[in-house]
Every structure is written in structure tokens, then in C-alpha cells.
Amino acid sequence: MNLTTEQQARFQHLQDRLGKWEQDQFKNMLNNKLYNVLGRVNWHKNIFVKKCNDITIESLISVLNGFESAEKELKHIKRQFRLMNVSTLRVNYILLRTQHLINLTYKKIQR
Is 7 helix (H, G, I), strand (E, B) or coil? Predict the structure, then answer.
């Protein structure tokens, strides 16, 4: 297939636009995942904070498992953002807070 330089340039431009669009779609998907994980972390945090004194050990372990699964998913999202050369400040902040909640939950279980 022989293309003129103008046709090649137009084709390359369309490929670049498609690549940019796909990258934006993927970034939006990751941001939605991040928002969902943040919602789960907040849900578990609210249970931990509001019922801290009344909660059973089994329930604390369940909350801890929720935090740990959120932590794993946050690390995966962070890795994907890094591969795309996107800022990971929000992910780092949420990850740090989640790790802090994990430590607090461990301490509460050990008491």
C-alpha cells in the first residue's frame, strides 16, 4: 500500500489521536477504580471508628481484611498510574491512610 506523505501524515495523526483517546479512557477507568476503593476504605473506616469499643474480634478481622484488600488494589492502581507516567499523589495519600488504619486495627485486635 503506497501512501503519499500527506496521507501518511493524516494516518499518523489519526493513530495518535486514537492512542491519546485510549489513554484518556484508561486513565478515567483507573480514576473510577480509585474512587470506588476510597469509598470502601471510608466505609470500613466508619465501621471501625463508630463501633470501635463495641465491635467483636471477628468483626475487627473482617474490617482488617477489607483494609488489606483495598491496600492491594491501591498498590495495583498506583503501578498502573506509574506505567502511564501519571501523578500518583492521590493514590499515595489514600494508601498511606489505609496503612495507618491497618496498623490501628492490628493494635485494637491485639488488645
Answer: helix
Confidence category of residue 79, pLDDT binned at 50, 70, 90? very high
Sequence-distant (6+) residues with CB within 8 A of 77 are 30, 33, 34, 37, 91
Distance of CA 69 to the CA centre of its chain: 11
Mean pLDDT in the chain?
A: 89
The full DSSP string for 31-64 is HHHHHHHHHHHHHHHHHHHHTTTT--HHHHHHHH
Query: Is residue 33 scored above 80 in pLDDT?
Result: yes
Residue 8 to residue 16: CA distance in whole angstroms: 12
Please say whether the beta carbons of 109 and 60 come within 8 A. yes
